[in-house]
């Protein structure tokens, strides 16, 4: 197999890992030449087309949901660091991509696999003098020295938790140790983020949603802990879809809305100052599929609404359904000019004014005319 065919096969095999996509399978894109190129959300908030590729396919592990398990379904392919670095740089020079996301199935051992990945990134950085964005997956079982080297070389690293706890992980990924290899590694990375001499500025993680029969509450608790303990930048969620030829091929697929609700909670933690106790679950300890978690919180807190748009702080504005961080900042800015007495001002601030208006007072008044018009209460 020539290197171009290898690149195509290993880039397509990487599509199942979402940790550098912008949030969900709908954001994936197949490049003109059959390669998986992703619009990755960078730590600075910008997006960039990133080549996502595996160093090798055909894994020696046995995760029940994974197409690469037990050697995979096709021929096992392994890129040499020299070849992969060269193929990536061809794409950079052709301006097809601006960054690299490198992951791998385990071939040989976790240490040997991680060494190959590090060698690839070293060639990209030092031989080809590429100083752009690189996201490097940390293989479960990698050594601390390898993790430190990864943090010297990559802008972002990630450890896929896949499941929320030891018991759930054991059901779908035998051989992986939740506490030592995954959470322990995340804590180690979190402790080292910001250390002088390390290029890496952030870490992320990913969950396979629903594969282990877990409740959303378990996933969200572990996500919250990861923010608290490991300086997590963000979580990614991939709704489980059965793959033929795996032990879970007959299991029911998880609806995309469940993945979406988890992303909403992740946003509430990161951008809306919500905390774990603010998240409301149904009787089965799952998020509602029918309504978003912020609207549910508002419905359970009638004592907070309607709130005076002119007096409340940013944190309180962020609790209003329909208002995000940008709208909240615009309201604060507008208040420096004068008090907000008319709904028209809110209309100019956010396209979601219809959602937000019923939760607000405008200089002491509920806009009854508009309330009747909206018929939302
Ligand atoms: S470790 Fe598990 S999830 Fe990762 S490639 Fe191997 S079988 Fe798949």
What does this structure look like?
With 377 residues, the protein is an alpha/beta fold. It has two domains: 3-254, Aldolase class I (TIM Barrel), CATH 3.20.20; 304-374. The protein contains 14 helices and ten strands. Strands 1-2-3-4-5-6-7-8 form an eight-stranded mixed sheet. Helix 2 (81-93) crosses helix 3 (110-127) and helix 4 packs across helix 6. The longest helix has 18 residues, at 110-127. It starts with a helix and ends with a helix. The model is unreliable at 18-28 (pLDDT under 50). The structure holds iron/sulfur cluster. Iron/sulfur cluster (SF4) binds next to loops. Iron/sulfur cluster is lined by residues 59, 61, 63, 66, 68-69, 105-106, 173.
Number of domains: 2
Proportion in helices? 25-40%
- Residue-averaged pLDDT, rounded? 90
CATH architecture of the largest domain: Alpha-Beta Barrel
CATH superfamily of the largest domain: Aldolase class I
Distance between the termini: 64 Å
* Unreliable sequence segments: 18-28
> Regarding CATH, which class of the largest domain?
Alpha Beta
Given the C-alpha coordinates, what overall shape results? globular
Radius of gyration: 23 Å
Q: Biggest sheet, in brief?
A: 8 strands, mixed
Strands of the widest sheet, in order across it, are 1-2-3-4-5-6-7-8
| Helix-and-strand structural type | alpha/beta
- N to C succession of SSEs: HEEEHEHEHEHHEHEHHEHHHHEH
Q: Which percent band covers the strand fraction?
A: 5-15%
* Helix count from the secondary structure assignment: 14
- Distinct bound molecules: iron/sulfur cluster
The beta-strand count equals 10
